[in-house]
Amino acid sequence: MNCLKSKYSVILGLINKGHERSVKAKKNILASFMIKGLSFAMNLVLVPLTIDYVNPSRYGIWLTLSSIISWFGFFDIGLGNGLRNKLAEAIAKGQEESARIYVSTTYAVICIIVGILLILFLCINHFINWAKILNTSQEMADELSILAVIVFVFFCLRFVFQLLNTVLTANQEPAKASFFDFLGSLFSLIIIFILTKTTSGSLIYLGTTLSFTPVLVLTAFSFWFYSHDYKRFAPSIKYVKFKYTKSLLSLGSIFFIIQIGALLLFQTSNIIITQLFGPKEVTTFNVAYKLFSILIVVFTIIMTPFWSAFTEAYAKKDFGWIKDTFMKMQKYLLFLSLLAILLLAVSPFAYKLWLNNKVQVPFSLSFVISLYVIAICWLTLNCFFLNGISKIRLQLYLYIISIIINIPLAILLGKVMGIIGIPLSNLLVMFFMGIILHIQSRKVINNSATGIWNI
């Protein structure tokens, strides 16, 4: 017992050691690891359960449809990330009224955007041939049309209520936001398990479950937080001031274009694969990506508290802390790269244990995706730092170049090399962007950034 107490005291001492900003980040990282670990474990269980429920081909259809619907996320025109930086800045400077105005105004503008999107989608959905888009049987057209409406309606609701996550993250409390994802995954797992015992495989039931549960969680916690801990930031009509939209959009509009670039880089793979190889291969690709994405989850957990921490430190001109923290993040990235190699080595056994040979993943695909994941983590390190201090114009130019190159390159490599050509294209683009943004990060940290490196 004394030994356990001693170890606990040592761990507690390490957590509470250092700058107040670092201590807060470490506490959130530790809590996020525990929560995300549980969420990831549930998602691993959810994948084979879902595949069993609807079969690999239909699961691939669901993945593709949901990724298409998620494209509408860029219609926040960068307001989420604009709010994140502006709110973190206002909190750092003790400007609580400005903070509440930014929150209230963002909610108001997002609600207007969502209302317009929902009306437009309901008007045009009847004319969309989802069966053709998803490269599947025309007999499924009506089912897919209904599913699209269900998913889009809940997507719109989530679009509004997930702003709570932005507010929590801006206040350097991302672990609380992670808890919402955990509950959403838990409820989804429970409901789908019940569905497997009570119904035959239905895309409608699957889509409704996976779309509804996150909205339920976010709605409940939004009302709770804004009436308790975050009452001082609670959105209110009285604090809606549309003139503040310009301030949010001056930064948010750049984030908006970056979001589109990221969308086209990360979310078009499913579409290209389903068009070139069919929906079943979407499942193969996503199974491999799901396994290796645990490394992205881990690194994002580490980095997330530091976006707003970098904002605060930069606002207070604390360059010493910024340099020290960035170097530590690079060491974590190196360690994560070694874990990627280890995971690649055991991946054939992991797939067999996880999916019981329901999906066959070529080792070549796992190899390319492992490198792709490392490249994403490297890009995340530099982007989170530069996003936090609002040095994002060079990133904007790189994304514009990348979206022009990536899709035709992915199609070309896919036709020549098969399914591995798709993530290989993404890898090459990510690596190119990572090199440029790493140079910019180093220049900014060393206070030698000028011209295009300082925008």
Secondary-structure topology with pairs:
Elements: H1 2-15, H2 20-54, H3 56-70, H4 79-92, H5 96-124, H6 130-133, H7 141-161, H8 163-170, H9 174-198, H10 203-227, H11 244-266, H12 269-277, H13 279-315, H14 319-355, H15 363-388, H16 393-417, H17 421-445
Helix pairs in contact: 2-3, 2-9, 2-13, 3-7, 3-13, 4-5, 4-8, 4-11, 4-13, 5-7, 7-10, 8-9, 9-10, 11-16, 12-13, 12-16, 13-14, 13-15, 14-15, 15-17, 16-17
Note down, in words, how this protein is organized.
By secondary structure, this protein is an all-alpha fold. It has one domain (22-448). 82% of the residues lie in helices and 0% in strands. It has 17 helices and no strands. The protein has helices at residues 2-15, 20-54, 56-70, 79-92, 96-124, 130-133, 141-161, 163-170, 174-198, 203-227, 244-266, 269-277, 279-315, 319-355, 363-388, 393-417, 421-445. Helix 4 packs parallel to helix 8 (163-170), helix 5 runs antiparallel to helix 7 (141-161) and helix 11 runs parallel beside helix 16. The longest helix is centred in the middle third of the chain and has 37 residues, at 279-315. It is globular and about 60 Å long.
